[in-house]
Amino acid sequence: MNARTRAIALATFRESVRDRLLLLVVVFAIALVLFSRVLGWLSVEDELKMVQDFSLTGLSLLGLFLAVLVGAGSLAREVERRTVYTALTRTATRAEFIVGRYAGLVAVFWLCQLGAAALLAGWIVVWGGALHGAFFAAVAGLLCETLVLTAIALFLGALAAPAIASVGTLAAYLVGHGTEALRDLTANGRNPDFAMAFEVLYRVLPNLESVNFINATTSGRPVDWGALGMGALYAACWAVAFLAGAVALFRRRQF
Amino acid sequence: MSTVVLAEALQKSFRPSAFGPAVHALRGVSFAVERGECFGYLGPNGAGKTTTMKVLTGLMTPSSGRVELLGGRPSEAAARRGLGYLPENPYFYEHLTPREALEFYGVLSGLDARTVRERSAALLERVRLTDAADRRIRSFSKGMRQRFGLAAALVHEPELLMLDEPLSGLDPAGRHLVKEIILEERARGRTVFLCSHVLADVQELCDRVVVLHKGQIARAGRIDELLDSSPRSFELCAAHVPDALRETLRARATLFRESGDTVTAHLAGAEAGPELAAAVHAAGGRVLSLVPDRETLESWFVRVIQREGPAPGSDA
């Protein structure tokens, strides 16, 4: 990453961190983690398992909300506020602008998720639980998911209006978590047309389940670090593909 | 002299809606800006000035025609290295402080962060923002934003300053300051491309102007050649004027005022003023002032725009 890209990332980071919207989302995430204890008390199963399961899903939703509320409208805000005029008339290229913006947003989102994860870890320890490798694997998987979601949000933001980009990011999240299950459900050969359609969807859209280690954490299965590594690589490839798309669209943009 | 900005037969058309008619914002605009000059780019609202600036800065590509910016194409980052651009009503990252924002713009212009930090203090002092250096830009007034915008345009010491309405939203002191900075930059050999509706300031700052009307160039040239330099009228102010001469002044003036022993007469034509001033002097009166009224850029501009009327084939 060159100095210009770093400067754009840093400005994006500072700008986002100081935005009140982000504060609201983070407060929501903290409330979710704290609320998980209530659900734990109501649970018939292991209380702490419930706390961990619910909170990690909350962290995934935090990544989604950040991508939808902050990431999807990010480029549109730049154009609307005309901040893009003063940035792109310098030596920075449009590709550097997109990559810098992406890096800044991911840094902010990761900071929020890691902060919430640290809070959750503390919360688990306070209530007498122990932290295992599976917990950290789940958090790492969520960070990978955010990597992809932010790239999707930026790509859709470069392609369409913020509202459409937000809905598209939300749809990508839902589809991304659903295609693997749908493919497996229809793989029994009873309905080959559906099976083919879900197979195609599974292949052409990012499968966010490949970085979802929440179930493994709560079910107590040992961590498959190799799967996590492959999942991270898979997420990075999708992120790069969406970023390349965003750059291609942004290069053609007339301001 | 070398050419810093070149526009040749520039055309730019938009289609605001998918099925609507095309809007031709620029229709074959050609001009050249030479190194070291202050060039005024004028036109009424909707004439195509901002579109031209966007094309020149690489924010837009022309539909046809050729553009050169500092010897390269505006879409090339290297060509923009020497460009300092201040857009109309500039917005910046609201949550950054001027210091942080200057560092951001400096680095984007190819400077290293340390150099920008070294320049920031002097630059903020120059635009009278030292006291606000650590406040967020969000809290700035329009005038402060405008002055900060100028600092951001100057941070990398560009050889070409492209300023879109730099005097808009400024109080008199702010306008004076910005004009002073523009004149200083000119004195340092920088080229200034100025787009403004405040024509008195353009007349004061620029050597040459182009008037754009309905996407076409209506007039172009040096200001001193475009304007009629002969006086259109005089304002004569005199004291101790004998009664008979006072009556002559009253009769010949288009506007006449008396205040005690002092009279002020507005005299039409190029000869009446000097002739009657000489008569006052010869009759023992005291000529306090004789001010010629020459054509201003503003009155010339209004005349040009009224004469041009709507351009042929205009969409408007």
Rg estimate of chain B, integer Å: 24 Å
Shape of chain A: globular
Question: Topology as H/E string of chain A?
Answer: HHHHHHHHHHH
Overall SS class of chain A: mainly alpha
Average residue pLDDT of chain A? 88
Number of domains of chain A: 1
**Fraction of residues of chain A in helices?**
over 70%
Q: Which chains have the largest interface?
A: A-B, 25 and 36 residues
Low-confidence stretches of chain B: 311-316
Describe this structure in words.
The complex is a heterodimer of chains A (255) and B (316). In chain A, helix 2 runs parallel beside helix 6 and helix 3 (47-71) runs parallel beside helix 7. The longest helix of chain A has 33 residues, at 94-126. Chain A is globular, with a radius of gyration of 19 Å. The model of chain A has no long low-confidence stretch (mean pLDDT 88). Chain A has one domain (3-252). Helix content of chain A is 81%, strand content 0%. Chain A has helices at residues 3-17, 20-42, 47-71, 74-80, 83-88, 94-126, 133-159, 162-185, 192-204, 214-219, 225-252. Chain A is mainly α. Chain A contains eleven helices and no strands. Chain B has 316 residues and is an alpha/beta fold. Chain B has two domains: 3-224, P-loop containing nucleotide triphosphate hydrolases (Rossmann fold), CATH 3.40.50.300; 233-293, 2-Layer Sandwich (Alpha-Beta Plaits). Chain B contains ten helices and 13 strands. In chain B, a hairpin with a 2-residue loop joins strand 8 (208-213) and strand 9. In chain B, helix 2 (98-108) packs across helix 3 (113-126) and helix 2 runs parallel beside helix 4 (142-154). The two termini of chain B are 38 Å apart. The relative contact order of chain B is 0.13. The A-B interface holds A 3-4, 6-8, 10-11, 14-15, 18-19, 81-83, 85-93, 254-255 and B 54, 57-61, 77-78, 80-81, 83, 85, 87, 89-96, 100-101, 103-105, 107-110, 112-113, 136, 149, 152, 156.
